[in-house]
Design goal:
The complex is a heterotrimer of chains A (494), B (281) and C (320). Chain A is an alpha/beta fold. Chain A has 20 helices and 12 strands. In chain A, strands 2-3-4-1-5-11-6 form a 7-stranded mixed beta sheet, sandwiched between helices. In chain A, helix 17 runs antiparallel to helix 18 and helix 19 runs antiparallel to helix 20. The N terminus of chain A is likely disordered. The C terminus of chain B is likely disordered. In chain B, helix 1 runs antiparallel to helix 14, helix 3 crosses helix 14 and helix 4 crosses helix 8. With 281 residues, chain B is mostly helical. Chain B has a single domain, classed as MetI-like (MetI-like fold, Orthogonal Bundle), CATH 1.10.3720. Chain C is mainly α. Chain C has a two-stranded antiparallel ribbon with strand order 1-2. In chain C, helix 5 packs across helix 7. Classes of the chains: A alpha/beta (494), B mainly alpha (281), C mainly alpha (320).
Chain lengths: 494, 281, 320
């Protein structure tokens, strides 16, 4: 209570406090930080363009302009997420944190960040988040959700303008045109509601590449040079020829059919379900994936001992004695999948090159919950995590994320400091960054998560020869209607 | 009479089968424990007969993991399973005694009713149960996991059969003549007689409650209140960021260890108790 | 006279003793049950963050469930149960009769008795996880088969990719988890048989087969029935094992998809109306099963064995 009183007093007396966006919010460093920020944010737009950011525009540094953090009513900032990545990154880059913890982190002014982490599996995360958001208005101040994370597969559920679960960034005091000018455009599009207002923001973009085994490349093609191999993987037709060569040498091109899924689904022309509609329209791209997968599976280009992703067989396919030549992964996949599963295999055995098609796989977004009692902190954390060049550089270096800042990533592509030992000294950003420029995201719907999961499940049986095509289709229809009771019909392409 | 040779064949056959079955039963425990001593990458590669050197690392990882608090989980599980076992056995014995030793109008109806609900699946009422405890402000507490165990029809039925076979009503009459009050009679005369049956049901209930996932997963929200199976499920569901199978197996081993100890400790009672109870059907 | 008064007095205690049980049941089972049934007549689910309903729809939910594959899932549940139950009851009977057979002199009996119950101590989900790892395409079982030359590396056996494989694995797991429990129960029943009867049979020259089928089996029929019914109920509730083994999909082609997995999917999609209706169906089925239990365990025995026993007792008494 006392603390609260003091903070109110502070907020009324120190109206003029102006602080750096990521540089801090505590009341003693107002003069130094904005200057630091200006120097790092080379792409930050000119000062005169940002009158719309509001109260603190006078500073002349848009990204750095911040509201007074002590104006927040709440003492506890609750951050909901589905894994530890958001926590780890905020703990690493947010300067207000004095004591980073796994369940709570302490801030300079005595407030705490509460990390609420529930797994995605079985929908546990969304269940608990939805429950909390539903009770947001009646919840006590320190119980309210302040910031939450969402994955690309279901972000539309939370950015919906009618439901208004997440605040518009402009209402929060973030101007996407200026503050987030350096972000990749496709990440801004998918973070916007149906009216085009951004309600989410991300520190990462997830352009995918093809990661291959250097030793197998040398044995089969006589070279492991990414540029040479890149020619062999530049299109589906080229890759098929390459697959034939690999097969002749006793290797599999990819682990399984799900590995290629994102390359197809990224090129969908229409969303799974159109806005306000109740009909699932399966895109021709998806049927192409089914047909091509069948062809590849029967031709022996996939490892027959792997069925689907995220299971032990798939992980084993990444180990040193596996016969799988390549995987299709964005940056996070290499760091969190390949590296741990490669285990104690020799370093420098992998390399990246271009995938047969540009694609984006995944991405975690952060949103400020409507009704938060800590809007100033929400703004500050969102900006620090997703719009500050220093933070993003640090995240790229420490967590090997492909971060959401064009300038930083362009620098990274030519900066030797980003070379990876795991990739034998190669700088993967050489391939990530051009990949990101070519991404055109398929239109999203709030049903994407279920559609993707269930279409893969249903067609696994078909690919393995357990059911015919019509049964697989029927199984998908049954499953999708169970998952989303409002779905009335499923339409298949001719 | 059967020939000696035939009997010898039977003896050998019986022993072989028993050894195979015991091997299968123990095999899984062994694998669990071996896996708890191996690092993630090795587990991913396959099974191993020999334990690895990662026991301490896995244990440290498990203990220090603030995201999946196993220590508070074990404590919560002990509280829930212990209280459930105590409440369940005591009140089932009480109910069984009430129906066995007294004559009253609704006796037959009550008995029939309990037999009728003997087979009701928990999942059937799960939805309403969650709504109810939310209304009662008991969601995210351990009470809804403990209190309902007072009404356990199956345990009641076992206790009832046991009373039938081992409590002569004359004993109760004698106690009354000595001036014993009804509750005292139950607590001091009937309960000691029922000890073996209560030991059996205590361990069954304890194990059931210890391994229960469905209801705790519905009820519990806060990490610090979660029981072991919920935490294990959380860890299992954790995506690529947290996947550490070594830690996972360590957790499962930790979860199983207490019940194995309790079981080995009580196993004599269990086998003897079931026999004594002579569930006569 | 005095005696009667006392009896009236005591009946109060009967009510007091059973009160906690019924009170708890009423609050934590009955009210939720009524609530569940009520919602089964409504359209009530969540779409995204919005709630749809509750709108009263009468028996719509019940009808659409009948039109769905519910009966197929009931069939799956039954098949999965029977695959585990048949070996379970056979082995358990065998073991129980061996354990009580003095002539067999099984060494280390105590050890075996303790060990066979142990799989029951492992969480079903942890058990399923282990099986999944064991039988996966690159798992140890396939590796062993490859090293023996039974299969080649390009044609591993996809245990969890075929209906037969998945169902068998579920059956094996259920068998391993429950045969110890059943053995202990049956042993108790066999030990309850008067040794006089066995002695008499020995004198009459019964061999062990005759003794088992003519004496032991008929005499433990009630407990066999009890085991059967409780196992059916357990089978009806089957969830963890197939859920984890098939990642919730009951694949391939939903051949291992059980009723509770079906219910779980409706609960997961927050479809309270449909989940309610499915719960009511399940409740009715288990109600029918419990009626049978009641019939068997409460005097009226369909097979007449108890009636026969009563008659015999009466005759004996008369003869005395």
């Amino acid at each position: 209570m006392k603390k609260k009183l003091i903070s109110v007093l502070l907020s009324t007396t120190m109206i003029a406090t102006i602080l750096g966006g990521c540089g801090g919010g505590s009341n003693n460093n107002s003069s130094s930080t904005p200057a630091d920020n200006t120097s790092t944010e080379s792409n930050a737009p000119a000062a005169d363009s940002n009158a719309s950011t509001g109260d603190n525009a006078a500073t002349g540094d848009s990204a750095a302009a911040a509201t007074d953090l002590s104006s927040d009513a709440g003492q506890v900032i609750n951050i909901y997420s589905f894994n530890t990545e958001v926590r780890d990154r905020i703990n690493a880059v947010y300067p207000e944190i004095t004591e980073a913890g796994e369940s709570q982190s302490k801030l300079k002014d005595g407030r705490v960040i509460n990390w609420v982490i529930n797994p995605n599996q079985d929908g546990v995360y969304q269940d608990k988040l939805d429950e909390a958001l539903a009770g947001q208005m009646s919840a006590a101040d320190d119980e309210k959700v302040d910031i939450f994370a969402a994955e690309l597969d279901y972000i539309t559920k939370y950015t919906d303008a009618d439901i208004d679960a997440a605040m518009k960034l402009t209402d929060l005091g973030i101007d996407p045109n200026t503050d987030l000018a350096d972000q990749f455009d496709f990440t801004k599009t998918v973070a916007s509601d149906q009216n085009g207002d951004m309600r989410a923001t991300s520190w990462q973009a997830c352009p995918g590449v093809l990661v291959y085994r250097r030793d197998i490349a040398k044995e089969v093609f006589g070279t492991d040079d990414p540029a040479e191999i890149g020619k062999k993987t530049s299109s589906w037709d080229e890759l098929k020829k390459t697959a034939e060569e690999l097969k002749a040498a006793g290797y599999y091109t990819l682990a399984c059919y799900d590995d290629t899924f994102r390359l197809y689904s990224n090129s969908m022309a229409q969303p799974w379900v159109a806005a306000t509609d109740t009909v699932v329209k399966v895109d021709q791209q998806i049927m192409d994936w089914v047909n091509d997968s069948m062809e590849w599976y029967q031709a022996g280009y996939f490892d027959p001992a792997v069925s689907g992703q995220w299971n032990s067989d798939w992980y084993t396919a990444m180990s040193p004695d596996s016969k799988v030549f390549s995987f299709l992964f964005p940056a996070w996949g290499i760091d969190t999948q390949l590296v741990p599963n490669w285990g104690d295999g020799a370093e420098g055995s992998w390399a990246v090159t271009n995938a047969p098609a540009a694609y984006n796989w995944g991405g975690t977004f952060v949103l400020a919950a409507t009704g938060t009692d800590n809007p100033a902190y929400a703004r500050d954390i969102l900006l620090c995590l997703t719009a500050n060049a220093d933070s993003l550089t640090k995240i790229s270096q420490e967590y090997a994320d492909f971060t959401n800042a064009k300038s930083v990533m362009q620098n990274a592509a030519t900066d030797a400091a980003f070379a990876s030992d795991f990739l034998g000294g190669q700088n993967p950003y050489e391939y990530f960054t051009p990949g990101a420029d070519n991404i055109k995201m398929a239109p999203l719907s709030s049903y994407d998560q279920g559609c993707v999961e269930l279409i893969q499940n249903s067609f696994h049986d078909y690919l393995k020869g357990q059911v015919d095509l019509d049964t697989a289709k029927a199984n998908f229809e049954t499953a999708i209607k169970e998952r989303y009771p409002e779905i009335t019909e499923v339409q298949w392409p001719e | 009479m059967e020939s000696k040779g035939y009997n010898r064949f039977r003896v050998i056959f019986a022993h072989v089968l028993l050894i195979i079955l015991s091997f299968l039963c123990l095999f899984f425990f062994y694998i669990l424990i071996v896996n708890a001593t191996r690092p993630h990458a090795e587990i991913q590669k396959g099974f191993s007969i020999l334990p690895g050197g990662y026991l301490v690392t896995n244990f440290k990882n498990m203990i220090s993991d603030g995201t999946y608090p196993i220590v508070s989980g074990v404590i919560n599980s002990i509280i829930v399973a212990g209280c459930s076992a105590a409440l369940c056995t005591y009140f089932s014995a009480l109910t069984a005694y009430g129906l066995y030793a007294y004559d009253f109008k609704l006796k037959k109806v009550a008995f029939t009713f309990i037999m009728a609900i003997l087979v009701m699946p928990t999942q059937v009422t799960a939805m309403g149960f969650l709504r109810l405890i939310t209304k009662m402000n008991m969601d995210d507490t351990l009470f809804p996991l403990i209190i309902p165990s007072i009404a356990s029809p199956a345990v009641f039925y076992f206790m009832y059969s046991y009373l039938q076979s081992s409590l002569p009503l004359s004993l109760v009459e004698a106690a009354r003549i000595d001036g014993s009050r009804e509750f005292r009679t139950f607590n001091q005369i009937v309960l000691p007689i029922m000890k073996p049956a209560m030991a059996v049901q205590a361990i069954f209930t304890f194990v059931g409650s210890w391994n229960n996932y469905f209801v705790p997963a519905l009820v519990l929200e806060t990490k610090s209140k979660m029981t072991v199976p919920v935490i294990i499920a959380l860890l299992r569901g954790a995506d690529y960021m947290n996947r550490d199978m070594g830690k996972m197996y360590m957790m499962i081993a930790t979860a199983i260890l207490p019940i194995i100890v309790v079981y080995l400790f009580l196993s004599k009672y269990i086998i003897a108790g079931v026999a004594l109870g002579g569930v006569k059907g | 006279m005095k005696q009667k008064n006392k009896k009236v007095n005591y009946s109060k205690w009967g009510y007091i003793f059973i009160l906690p049980f019924f009170l708890t049941f009423f609050i934590f089972s009955f009210i939720p049950l009524v609530d569940t049934i009520r919602y089964s007549f409504f359209q009530y689910f969540r779409s995204g963050l919005k709630w749809i309903g509750p709108n009263f729809v009468g028996l719509e939910n019940y009808k659409s469930l009948l039109q769905s594959d519910m009966l197929r899932y009931a069939g799956n549940t039954f098949i999965l149960w029977i695959i585990g139950f048949v070996p379970q009851i056979v082995i358990s009977l065998l073991l129980a009769s061996w354990f009580v057979d003095a002539r067999l002199k099984i060494k280390g009996q105590q050890f075996f008795k303790v060990v066979i119950y142990m799989p029951n101590l492992i969480m079903a989900s942890a058990f399923a996880m282990l099986f999944f790892a064991l039988f996966s395409l690159k798992g140890p079982i396939n590796s062993i088969l490859i090293s023996w030359g039974v299969i080649t590396e390009t044609t591993p056996i996809d245990f969890m990719g075929t209906a037969l494989g998945t169902r068998s694995l579920v059956g094996v797991m259920n068998f391993l988890m429950w045969f110890g429990n059943t053995t202990i129960m049956l042993m108790a029943a066999i030990m309850g048989i008067s040794p006089d009867i066995f002695e008499a049979s020995e004198i009459d020259g019964c061999n062990s087969f005759q003794r088992f089928f003519r004496i032991t089996l008929p005499l433990i029929r009630p407990i066999l029935a009890y085991t059967l019914i409780t196992s059916i109920i357990g089978g009806l509730q089957m969830f963890d094992v197939p859920q984890i083994l098939t990642n919730g999909a009951g694949s391939p082609n939903r051949t291992s998809y059980t009723l509770i997995m079906f219910l779980n999917d409706h609960l997961k999609s927050k479809n309270y109306g449909m989940a309610g209706a499915l719960s009511v169906y399940l409740f009715v089925v288990s109600g029918i099963l419990c009626y049978i239990t009641y019939k068997i365990t409460n005097d009226d025995d369909p097979d007449g064995s108890k009636a026969a026993a009563r008659k015999r007792k009466k005759m004996e008494r008369r003869m005395k």
